[in-house]
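WARN no homologs supplied; continuing
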Amino acid sequence: MALLSGTSEMLDAVVVGGGIVGAAVFHELADRGARVCLVEQDRTGLGTTAWSGGIVRCYHDDPLLVERAIQGLSFFRNFAERTGIHADFIESGFLYIPRPSMREQARSLTDRIARSFPAELLSSADLDRKFGHLLNRSAEFAVWEPRAGYLDATQVTRALVRSAVRKGGRLLEGVRVDGPNRVGGRVRGVRGSTGVVAADAVVLATGAHTPRLLDSWGVPHDLWAQAIQVELRGVDGAPADHPAYMDDVCSVNGRPDPDSAGMLLGHPTGYRVDGAIERTAVDPEQSRLAVEAGRRRFGWVEASVPLGGFRAAECYAPDGRGRVAWVPQEAGLMLATGFNGGAFKLAPWAAGEAARLLAG
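OK structure emitted
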């Protein structure tokens, strides 16, 4: 397949960014028989995706995100069937503690999830009976998804890419993208360190790099990059039945970490990243805030010890739903980004939506 400047071949699409979203879009398009190329400046799966917990669950306070997440859980639970490559799905279950004001909506959304996967609304008594040995304090209610869980995010990303290549997609790694290739008033591929990759459309799945990339291309947007930090806590005798979790009351999230036999503990930073997107060491003050928030809910946090952690960045959008859409006034340019830290579980939906828009 000829891809560089001076050739006559025009691809259907070039996907820029080899994280989970870019890999999912690449795979979906290749699976549908499109002529598609994935361009990644490093190696696939080594950006923010490498720090992802890979949690796949359905419940959100937003009904639209519930529908999209159901697609994600279905895809990942049938990953080998969809890609031809095995990836371990750890069925830890997922415990979600919404804000008390969300009780009725939580009941309705849990009923919706239960039509596709097992899910139930736990009362305070149910929660204490099932998870009381983990909790420092109970909650008024919670949503329990026993079939949810997590995967190794890097393994899954590279498996999607490998499957796409087997289906005819082309991969370019270690290739820098310098800007769009505009022809006749529309985007017709990208210019990069190896020349021009010509295509009918460009899908930007560049995660936290997207805001600065669009700025450099002169494309207006409302996106921003925000820091994400996750603590790794050592827990003596960590319970084997601990689920993946999200707690909107105490603002914590995480899951067990089999590699360290510890626990992952996340707490929102609220910190916007204005400079270059680089992986950095964890912020001690953010670690303190995370532990303080975590001990309000889980008994194991108090006696846990620090084992380090991870700090990266993700692309955020105002509505929290992610952005898979054509860019206004930039014919041929599509965004697939802005997932506010939730890209992994929504990547299968994003891939299907990007394919639908490209087909249209």
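The longest helix spans residues 343-359.
OK
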